[in-house]
Amino acid sequence: xxxxxxxxxxxxxxxxxxxxxxxxxxxxxxxxxxxxxxxxxxxxxxxxxxxxxxxxxxxxxxxxxxxxxxxxxxxxxxxxxxxxxxxxxxxxxxxxxxxxxxxxxxxxxxxxxxxxxxxxxxxxxxxxxxxxx
Length: 133
Known about the structure:
alpha+beta; Histidine-containing Protein, Chain: A; 3 strands
């Protein structure tokens, strides 16, 4: 028994610590953003049920894809706080809601959504509200 304990200790102490190759900060942030967006998209596809107003599962998937693209582009833009803005899509029409700290942030979010492929229109219902000091 003591032999096994000694073997376990020597095995644990004889290995050099594993080292990871350094990554650029931008690559780590991009990977984190992509993972978060993918998680949101997959969470929204649970059951893949067609909601009211959507004519088919294909339309639902197209809308989910647009929503994911809009959220990803907002997350990449440092001037838009993507976590405070909700994005919903129905038949290619994107609805933005939530809060922005300036009119410029609200306008930028609308421009980002409008630039996504297959977006037919954008309803920007974001409220501009100064953060509490």
